[in-house]
Write a structure and sequence with these properties.
The chain has 359 residues and is α/β, with parallel strands linked by helices. It has two domains: 184 residues, Alpha-Beta Barrel (TIM Barrel), CATH 3.20.20.10; 124 residues, Lyase, Ornithine Decarboxylase, Chain A, domain 1. It is 25% helix and 23% strand. It contains eleven helices and 17 strands. The strands form three sheets. A seven-stranded parallel sheet has the order 2-3-4-5-6-7-8. A six-stranded antiparallel beta barrel has the order 9-12-15-14-13-16. Strands 10-11 form a two-stranded antiparallel sheet. β3, α4 and β4 form a beta-alpha-beta unit. The protein is elongated and about 75 Å long. The chain starts with a strand and ends with a strand. It binds pyridoxal-5'-phosphate (PLP).
Length: 359
């Protein structure tokens, strides 16, 4: 028997969430964001599950884009950070990868490249995130260069919202965007991430770029749960108890002994630790399901194990099923209790955890 921990990826939940995203996009095409191995869900697995439904995939890793092409994916692929060096451009042309261009060096490299086929490009505008992208005053020259380049087959403008899930929302960035594009006439803009797609229906719908909502987590977990947004968990991380023991008052648990029993209590030892991707900084009280019943993490998470309170699950035994997040226990709740976001939980799923699929 192998170590009792596994992740399950639910294809039908993914397809359901994709349909929810499409409803919010009002029928406009969307990029399925699959960077970081589809937020830890498995790039090719996600592409297989969505099949011809997907309009296109957006990611940053060239290896991932090539893997999609080798697996037979024919949809457009958007490279969210473009190319890092001009030597990648022949692969972009050969495999029809759409680069996001965010800096002058990329424009110059593209303009001076000899490509087998011209490429559609996305031009990234900085409207307030202040990471990558062209400022308003740099746009005319950038557009001029691209429009004169025989290497360019079409230009789409894009921006990325900094606080679509927060208090500031998208109004200010959208106003900057409107001013920037006012002179350009009719123009396709790709802007909305999950939070904007759901929470800001006035933001551009076309070629939205949802990520986290497709994987079944809420883009604003403190305001609305995934279930309230009709999103279903795609990844379930499950394990088993590999030990149970009775503590007496005063017993301490795990490294550092940071949890002390105040009374006699049963605890369980779960075959999951930070080397499986469970956050080490999750503390006592983080929710865990044992035998389908909600209980709590106790003490410090170890590399291969964590301990849980079995006071409310007296029937629990070695071999009892445990859910760390997913079906029955939203990843958002675990993430919030651990001071992080579901994005980080999903992306951190460790390669040593076997993954199975549910159609
Ligand atoms: C440029 C870009 N677009 C879209 C997304 C998807 O965002 P979310 O997962 O919040 O929907 C991301 C993710 O960080 C991104 O970097």
């Amino acid at each position: 028997m192998s170590r009792p921990i596994s992740a399950t990826i639910d294809h039908s939940a993914l397809r359901h969430n994709d349909a929810v995203a499409r409803r919010h996009a009002c029928g406009a095409p969307i990029w399925t964001v699959v960077k970081a191995d589809a937020y830890g869900h498995g790039l090719l697995r996600v592409a297989r599950a969505l099949g011809a439904t997907a309009d296109g995939y957006a990611l940053i890793e060239l290896e991932g884009a090539l893997a999609l092409r080798h697996a037979g994916c024919r949809q457009p692929i958007l490279m969210l950070e473009g190319f890092y060096g001009a030597e990648e451009l022949p692969l972009f042309a050969q495999h029809r990868l759409t680069p996001v261009l965010h800096c002058a060096e990329q424009l110059r490299a593209l303009a001076s490249a000899a490509l087998a086929n011209p490429l559609p490009v996305y031009l990234k505008l900085n409207t307030g995130m202040n990471r990558l992208g062209f400022n308003a005053d740099e746009l005319p020259a950038a557009l001029d260069l691209l429009r004169r380049s025989p290497q360019v087959a079409g230009i789409t403008l894009m921006t990325h919202f900094a606080d679509a899930d927060g208090e500031r929302g998208v109004a200010q960035q959208q106003a900057s965007l409107a001013m920037i594009v006012a002179d350009l006439g009719e123009q396709v803009i790709s802007a909305a991430n999950s939070a904007a797609l759901i929470g800001h229906p006035q933001s551009p719908r076309n070629w939205a770029r949802p990520g986290i909502m497709l994987y079944g987590a809420s883009p604003f977990p403190e305001q609305q749960s995934a279930a309230a947004l009709d999103l279903r968990p795609v990844m379930t991380l499950a394990a088993e108890l590999i030990g149970v023991r009775e503590l007496v008052a005063g017993d301490r648990v795990g490294y550092g002994g940071v949890f002390t029993a105040e009374r006699p209590m049963p605890i369980g030892i779960v075959a999951c630790g930070y080397a499986d991707g469970y956050p080490r900084h999750a503390g006592t009280g983080t929710p865990v399901l044992v035998e389908g019943r909600r209980t709590r993490l106790l003490g410090r998470v170890s590399m291969d194990k964590l301990c849980v309170d079995l006071s409310a699950v007296p029937e629990a035994r070695r071999g009892s099923p445990v859910v760390l997040w997913g079906e029955g226990l939203p990843a958002d709740e675990v993430a919030t209790a651990a001071g992080t976001v579901a994005y980080e939980l999903f992306c951190a799923l460790a390669p040593r955890v076997p993954v199975s699929e549910r159609p």
